[in-house]
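User: Quick one: structure for sequence A, then sequence B.

Assistant: Sequence A:
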Amino acid sequence: MIVWLNGTFGAGKTTTAGELVEVVPDARIFDAEQVGYMLYHVEGLPKVRNFQEWTPWRALVVQTAFRLLDYVGGVLVIPQTVLIEEYWTEIRAGLEKEGIPLRHVVLHTDQDTLTRRIETDTIETGARQWRLDHLADYRDALPWLTREAEVVDTTGVAPARVAQIIAEGSGG
């Protein structure tokens, strides 16, 4: 099974993923961004704003998840923002084709909390402005995200509790 944690940059996906693997048996994190970083080293790919624009990224994420689950079993927790509906549809369809059960969860919080989290983040300080600049992209994607995913409001909720809420819905 895959639990895909979606949401805007700074919503707490990585922190929640770390908590989730502590409470869901046989769960491990798969960082799909690493697939994108791998592709950045391939010469001749078109220049893009975001590695998700590369069709191979989406296909490789699906295939890597499939191969990992086939190899180790259990639950993959993927903390990855996907805000383009077409890309999500392609990923979801690929996972369905491989027969992988998928739980798509959007971590959501109010604008003030999100801005405060980003501005006070001591880990990803170099990406602070970039994350703030992409809040509008998240707002624009929210209508389709709410149709395609379970939305978990993280406003005022500790990451460990958010993970517990998700785990309870995953049979964990």
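Sequence B:
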Amino acid sequence: MEKILNKKGSVYFKELGWNKLLQHIEKQKPAKLFILVDNNTKTHCLPYFLEKLGADENIPTITIPTGEEHKNIASCLKVWNSLSEKNADRNSIVINLGGGVVTDLGGFVAATFKRGLTFINIPTTLLAMVDASVGGKTGVDLGHLKNQIGVIKQPEMVILDTNFLNTLPKEHLYSGFAEMLKHGLIYSEEYWERIKNLTVDNKVELDKLIFDSVAIKNEIVTKDPFETNLRKTLNYGHTLGHGIESHFLESNSKPTLLHGEAVAIGLILATFISSESIGFPKNRLNAVSETILNYFPKVNFTQNDIEHVIKLLVFDKKNSNGKVLFVLLENIGCPHINCIVSNDLIFKAFEYYKNF
């Protein structure tokens, strides 16, 4: 449980990761090293990073504001300008130290600055560890619309140290856990059975399951790096989940939902739709819903909320020829891609969620 090797973007765990990072810096001898953080990781994670690196505080650090609402081109402009002002050249390395916003935005900035700098991801949240830092997707939101601008570009490597999770509040741990639940649903009954009763306080078991979750995503991405077929299954629950997240992000009267909180709702909705349209077993539907709701409190949706979420589906990146395409499940571990779902069935899914 130390490494997951790829031609590019290999994932190294804990002490092996830090050793690989030091070896890479020594071998490459970059002209400059830059660290991208947000306000939270600057306070809670940067000191630990500098200690592991054996470095002083003179490494140029670029800080962006914390939060999904800052994952935009305006933040990119600030980082691009900072790199330019600090004389970054094409032999520089950018280290993205943070959650999914930092790794997504930092990867995009590095991939586009002077037509491409090397970047290394060091995810500090559970969500970033099991999802955002693996697979080479980089990018930013367009207004409230999720991940509309970006490129697929693999990091040089990913360093994964679960000690960073000690800095997280519980709700952020569970936000990442939603992606792990998704991996179980799309990949195998065996992993679903292991993951569904996890207590995130059980650090030993959590570490094992994080490794397995990263391995699952890595296996899928390796087989389909540019999302032509199999990789689409990783979007299970995300079609409606992203719509819900975007709606709550742009609304002045709604609380902002964490990514995993929105995806958790999307998983229940997608599993209901799967049961109604391609035969996902009813008893399993209820068991899956109960499992997810054990971790994520219910959210209220008005008729207007649902109508607006449906309108947002037209911006989903899986769409083709004007059709909104869903990932659905015939059973646990048996996903179907490119499924068309009626608005009536979406309304029924929200009704199921409300009344469960």
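The radius of gyration is 20 Å. The domain at 172-355 is CATH 1.20.1090.10 (Dehydroquinate synthase-like, alpha domain).

User: Thanks, that's what I needed.
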